[in-house]
């Protein structure tokens, strides 16, 4: 299916979602039939190809349960431990949202499914937004340097894997402004510079601007703020900067930057310098005037970036279109122009076999007993609207009843396929004792406090947290980086009364158990520590140096690494505490 044949794509989607129940059973049957004789499944099924036996016997697992199998494959044991087919590579997850990076096998079917999902996404967008097939998509993606396991198997991020396969299979990629070589350049600075340069040269053709996650996109804006003068010089002279040293990246950029274009350089310079020093409000629209939307994920832990994205994009629609992870492609937002609060993803029943474990916010740990899990788990077509679940997936790439760690809320059905909102990760991020604050709780409280700041001209660039137990009682600490809409934000401009109010609002919106313990002074007042500008960029660089991928990077909402905590603490410019007394 070609991505510009969007009507065909839409028909496929109608068919998949209408036949969700049947397709789910077929997917499961195919996976069991092919893999029943692998070491892993044989130990539960005795080689029988039986779906009911699968549901009865195969345990629902976490990454830690199957990690030994991944390590065995990495060290060169045959893939038949888990899969009937060869493992061309191992895929590494970002590990930033849920803890340590994970390693899972890839397979040809898996890659085909991911490419199919991407192409279906293009169809949905073209069907819903006029003119998207009459221009270029400036969608910046970054590769993470590959590594090899002790047995020589390549380990890479899934975005790198997709880009490599698009290149190897010579799949037509001219919808995008970034040549494959610029994405595959492992030096992030060169890659970002080159992709921006191409996107600026083709500025008048660009109809979509974006990056996989909102946090990645904002990092690109920071980079642009630092490099626009150099980029303009390149366009003015027709010579790419010496910063691009990677030969294939340089070659591909030179094809696009074929001649000097002083007129284009002038108009980019005008857009950037008119804004420079004051604010970059609406810079995306100014630089790419034909853009119809900002394509980036703004749901789940990314929701916090919405005000900043709206500010830089000049109110462009935020197109949050895909829900996918290293382990599995889940679904698509079929109504990309909807408001961020209405975004939901329709699960695609052909991507994997999906099961759902009901959770009542904090009760997810109740389902740690295998027997309780098996009693409560339901299939895709049996989910209930309004209920939250943890998603469990069985894939063509050696994952069987695997808990991804995402909590989803069912908000309806498209035909017979559930539509989900991403509530957050399963893990509790903050706890000093019986209080358990999840990523979702924290994000809700921060969203409320952030609203309080906005009328005063402040943007919350990013946040993270930790539970400080160095004094008794312990307390929650939130690290905030703030930016003034007009120009930079020094700590002297922070009104301590305003910040104290933010601390109080945060506590107000935490849950009843937290408030009960605060009321009894078993938890000390919540603290906000304001950070120097660009601290979260430095934190991201820190995690990337440790092996995270920029395209998949998500700011950890709770800092566990002592080293990262040290970095944050060294950049604190102001400390504020809640004075809330009644709960
Ligand atoms: P990774 O394992 O690095 O590939 O990251 C995948 C994780 O990113 C998922 O399990 C989700 O927690 C998160 N994620 C992916 N897509 C979305 C989305 N559309 N909205 C919110 N979070 C997402």
UniProtKB/TrEMBL annotation:
<dbReference type="InterPro" id="IPR004993">
    <property type="entry name" value="GH3"/>
</dbReference>
<dbReference type="Pfam" id="PF23571">
    <property type="entry name" value="GH3_M"/>
</dbReference>
<comment type="similarity">
    <text>Belongs to the IAA-amido conjugating enzyme family.</text>
</comment>
<dbReference type="InterPro" id="IPR055378">
    <property type="entry name" value="GH3_C"/>
</dbReference>
<keyword id="KW-0436">Ligase</keyword>
<dbReference type="GO" id="GO:0005737">
    <property type="term" value="C:cytoplasm"/>
</dbReference>
<dbReference type="InterPro" id="IPR055377">
    <property type="entry name" value="GH3_M"/>
</dbReference>
<feature type="domain" description="GH3 middle">
    <location>
        <begin position="345"/>
        <end position="425"/>
    </location>
</feature>
<dbReference type="Pfam" id="PF23572">
    <property type="entry name" value="GH3_C"/>
</dbReference>
<protein>
    <recommendedName>
        <fullName>Indole-3-acetic acid-amido synthetase GH3.17-like</fullName>
    </recommendedName>
</protein>
<dbReference type="GO" id="GO:0016881">
    <property type="term" value="F:acid-amino acid ligase activity"/>
</dbReference>
<dbReference type="Pfam" id="PF03321">
    <property type="entry name" value="GH3"/>
</dbReference>
<feature type="domain" description="GH3 C-terminal">
    <location>
        <begin position="440"/>
        <end position="563"/>
    </location>
</feature>
